[in-house]
Structure formats: C-alpha cells, structure tokens
Amino acid sequence: MDGKIVKMEKDYSPQVDSLIPSSKALAKSGHLEQALESLLSLEKQTRVGADLDSNTKILLHVIYLTFTFGDQSVEHATLCEYVTLLSKRHGALKQAVTKMVQEAMKYLDEPLVKSDPARQTKLIETLRAVTDGKIYVEVERARLTKRLAVIQENAGQIATACDTMQELQVETFGSMPIPEKTTFILDQMRLTLLKKDYTRTLLTSKKINTKIFERHAGMKQLKVRHYLTMIDWGMREAQYGDVAKYWFEIYEALRPRDEEELQAKPKQKSGLGKDKAKSSKEATSSDKSKATATKDKKEGEKDEPEAMEEEDPGDVIENVEDKWRFALVMIVAFICLTPFGNETSDFLQRIYRDSNLAKLPLAKELAKLFVTQELMRFPKLEEIYGHRLKALIAFYDGTPGITCEPSPFTEAEIQVQAEDGKVRWKELHKRVIEHNIRVVSKYYTRITHGRLTSLLDLPPNETETYLSSLVVSGTIYARIDRPSGIINFMKREEPETELNDWNNNLKSLLKLVEKTTHLITKEEMVQRIQKKAGDATQPVQSGGTVAA
Q: Mean pLDDT throughout 285-291?
C-alpha cells in the first residue's frame, strides 16, 4: 500500500476463524500445500478488502504452518519461501507485513534454528531482504543485521561482521529507542576497533551525541561503555590527552556526590524513545479527577507518603567505588603522559585539588611530582614507583613478576595494550625530562651544557634533542652557544621593544619624582602653617610684645 488509510470494505473474521483450525488440521495430516492454497486465497480477499485484522491473522498462521510442518532444510526452507512471497504481494498491508516479520524473528530463537548457524543465517538473510528499503520495518532490519553480525563475528569473520554493521545508519532511525540505537553504534565502534580501522571508529563515534547521557535516565552503563570504547581507541592511537578526558567523564559519572550536587542535578527524561504521553483530553480529565479527589479528602486524613523513585536498571553499576578509584588513577597517569600545555597544566591542577585523590596515595604522589616545580630524577622515580606503576594498564608491558591490576578491560584487550606498555613507559620518561627542562629554565638564565646534562641524567646528544624539541614547540625559549657550551634561557628583546621599555620606565620614574616633590612641598607647607598657628596662640609675657 502507498501509506494512505484505507477503509475496510468487508469483515472476513468469520471466514478466517473457521479456516484457521481446518487448515491446521489439513497441514497436520500431511496436506500442507492444500492448506496454504486455501489460506492464500482468503488472504487475497482480506488484502483487497483492507481487513487488516483478518489479513494479519492469516499471515501469522501461514508462517506458523510453514515453520511447524514445512521443510526447514537450508536448501528448501518453506518458511523463507512464503515470507518472501507474502511480502511481495500487490497491495500488501504494511501493518500486517510488520507483524509477520516480527513473528518470523521469534523463530530465530527456536532450538531447531538457533542450533544451526547456517539455517539461522538463511532466515536472517531472507528477513533482511524482505525489510530492505522499507522504512516501517527499519528497526526490525537493524536487529536482524546485528544478529547476523554476531554470527559472523563468532565465526571469526571480523571484517565481514564490521561491514555488515556499517551498512545501516541507525542514527537516522526515529522509531528506534535511544538506548538500543546507542548500543548499535557502540557495537559498530567495537567491530571497527577489532578490524583496526581506527579512522572509521572515530567517525562512527561522532554519531553519538554525548548529551543524551545526561538528558535521559538509564544511560549510565552505556555512557561508561562508550567512553571505555573511546579509551581503547585513544590508547591504540596514542592520544593520551583525549584518553585522560574520557577517563574523567567516567569518573564524573561514578564518583560519590554530596547532597547539594544531587539536589542540583536536573531531572532526566526517559530514554525509551517514544514517550508514552497521554493525549491532551486524557491529561485534562486526569487533572480534574485529581482535584476532585483532593477536595473529597477528609480533614483528619493523612496523605500517604510519596513512593521513592526507583533507580533505572541502566544506571546500576556494580563495584562503583572500585571503578571510580581506578578511573581517577588513570586520569593522573594519562595526564602525565600528555605533552605539556596550558590545558594539560590546568587539568592536572584541578585533579590534584580533588579531595578524592587523597584516598589514592600512588596517584597523589605521581601528580605531586609533576605539579611541584622541582627536579625529579627518573631512575629514582622508577626505583620507588616503577613496580606499582607498571601494574597499571597504562604502563603494563607484560614484565614477568608483575600482574596487571583489575581493570574494565578483558584479558585479550590487556594483552593488546601490553604491546604498547613499553612505549608509554618511555613516553613517561620523556615527560619527566621535559618537566625538568622547564624547571631549569625557570631557575636559570644561563647554564652550561655539561651542568644541564648532569641535572637531566642524559647523554649530551639527547639533552640537546629534548631541549630543541621544547624550543620548537614554543614551550620554552633557549639559545645554545655550542663553542662556549652555554645555554641561554633569557629571551633577547628587539631593540624597539627595549627602547619602549626604557622610555616607559623613565616616564614612571619622572612621575614618581614629581609625586615625591609634591608630597615634600605639601608637608613643608603643612608644617609652616602649624608653626604659625602655634606662635599665635602663645601667652603675652610681662614687659614684652606679641610677636607679629
């Protein structure tokens, strides 16, 4: 049908109610073809007559008979044959086809189909072909596509499963509930990560508007899963600053909150997609009934206490305290791995002032080393904190004798990340050296190359390499005089700038001299006036005159 509302011309309910039992008995006796022929003949009449209820009953009964009494082999699947036939009939009613597809999807969980991946794939492919291009069954097609991708993934066909999931743009599906839509996109991201298509992972992540995690209830588990997926991507791509931000989002979602924060938190909407709102008439009548009930209450009757709001199952996180503690440690670890900048420095300062950080001694001490403007020797850091830091997934490299601490990642993901553990440990060493160079540039205007080398515990050539990289990035200013072996950290100003500074300083000095002269003159005048006033009030002595 073209989507227009068609008025039912005739009610075929009596004929359908009498034909369904007889056709079932006929199919049970081995005459399935005759039963289906009689049903298809009546189906045409109900379809032409726009009898939706009767047409739906016939379609559901046909697929029931084909599944129960038909040939279910992969080569000759009667169910698949008739599902395709009924969906392609001229003027097929959309609601009836939708119900038929939904009913056929239930057979995917039947033991006969579920135990055989080939038979299950055959039925899924048939239903996907039926739903292709039909917007009114887009949600069913998405669910079928996801089941097909799971089968392909279990068979080890990661690339095929990834391509299958990428066929659909579920972000445009208005009828799909928000949690289900988000879960589908997260599965797309996960498969692209397994395929090592990291660019596609980043592009797919843009389909999720992170504001939905705050606007809708029951999304906390999906929020954590989303950011864990992004963390996996960031660690593979060495985007340590982004990884620290993702861990911070998880920490913000799980950390304990005081009463003021809970009261200030806005009320969240339901995340189930279509709101089950009442019509305006129902709402008006409901308000009137409530008002009437309130008036009818007796004066001495006490109001019943309001029922406490139950927490949405999607917001329940197990072992939440362990997870926010782990997230806070990861924030500090990856901030320390991030190249220095104003944003990174501000982020580290805010985390360092967090009261919960005091409960995590290792993270607190590591953050303090980078916050304090003092030199730190990496060999000493490795000696004191090396064993504990390498037990974190951020620095875990599979060293014998060191076990990775519990984390939200699977064992397979931990082994994948362990390959980059040594790289991140070297990156930490690099950040320590850069921190030390910044500290030296603050306390020294000039320093010899040998002295700087000894302070950094580096060979001379590496010292110059790290120093040059910081100069190129604009983090510090330095000039190396190789013949004399002196490094100058004081930036030389342009002659025009120096002349302007000298001029401004001279003007300030003259203004200060002028102000001082004025104050001295003012004080002299005050003293002179006070002296004259004192002389005028002195008593006249005998034989003397009053001084003028």
A: 46
